From TrEMBL:
Homology family: Belongs to the short-chain dehydrogenases/reductases (SDR) family.
Protein name: Short-chain dehydrogenase/reductase SDR
GO biological process, one term: monocarboxylic acid metabolic process
PANTHER family: 3-OXOACYL-(ACYL-CARRIER-PROTEIN) REDUCTASE (PTHR42879), 3-OXOACYL-[ACYL-CARRIER-PROTEIN] REDUCTASE FABG (PTHR42879:SF2)
Keyword Oxidoreductase included in the entry's annotation: yes
Organism in which the protein naturally occurs: Roseiflexus castenholzii (strain DSM 13941 / HLO8)
InterPro entries: NAD(P)-bd_dom_sf, Sc_DH/Rdtase_CS, SDR, SDR_fam
Annotated PROSITE patterns: ADH_SHORT (PS00061)
NCBIfam families assigned to the protein according to its UniProt record, in alphabetical order: PRK07231.1 (NF005559), PRK12824.1 (NF009464), PRK12826.1-2 (NF009466)
One Pfam entry name: adh_short
Taxon lineage: Bacteria, Bacillati, Chloroflexota, Chloroflexia, Chloroflexales
Amino acid sequence: MGRLEGKYAIVTGASRGIGRAIALELAREGCIVGVNYQHNQALAEEVAAEIKSMGRECMLLQANVADPTEARAMVRRFLDAYGRLDIMVNNAGITRDRSLRKMTDEDWLQVIQTNLNAVFFCTTAAMQPMIEQQYGRIINISSMNGQTAAFGQANYGASKGGIIAFTKTAALELAKYGITVNVVAPGFTLTDMLSKVPEEVQNQIKARIPLGRFGLPEEMAKAVVFLAADGDYITGQQINVNGGAYM
Ligand code: NAP
């Protein structure tokens, strides 16, 4: 028996990286998982196949969560199929790194829309059934760089800091319905997002991590599952999973 047997979960950005690991870990613990992706259908299908090979159920949910209509329709599709949503993991995210002197309006707006506004769209859609159920677990993936400065990431840092602030207010407002809202804040994690950082910069970053290595997507997923399965009295909080890179 998994720790989340029979629970229904949606993970945004679950075709790759951290979202993929979260979807797999939730399925391993017994969840029926909605696997959201934007472009990479083939990879999302691989995640779905892996979930099915565990004997678990899942649903592919193509949607651009940065679009409010698509984000809300995605949650609706899952509810039409299963009638319940217990766990919403807002994980989808992008970077458009540039120093402020070079950052365009588009760089700024795309990152805020995808990383922050989408969390609002998906949370407000997911909370409706959770209020009716008087139960819900909303877990938002922020970042160490929402807490500390990173060169070239004014847009990303603002979006991730915004997630932390949003989470606290959502936790306050939704507590009376049995809904908890928390953040997992990864440090540098081995995914496609990190691979965009030049190798030389990666080496400099690694040298500053007290535990001496980058995080694994599975290590972020464990924190998410902890909050979903064992975090009944935890709300409005954040778990930093960063190897000590920011204390
Ligand atoms: P990743 O490997 O680049 O994967 C990003 C995922 O998000 C993909 O599944 C992608 O879907 C999806 N996505 C992007 N835009 C989307 C949209 N508009 N609608 C729906 N899905 C969308 O990223 P990652 O490293 O796993 O990061 C996951 C989360 O962790 C992000 O919020 C990121 O900011 C955060 N984080 C990452 C690190 C790190 O070092 N990797 C550190 C701290 C925080 P497609 O495959 O279809 O494009």
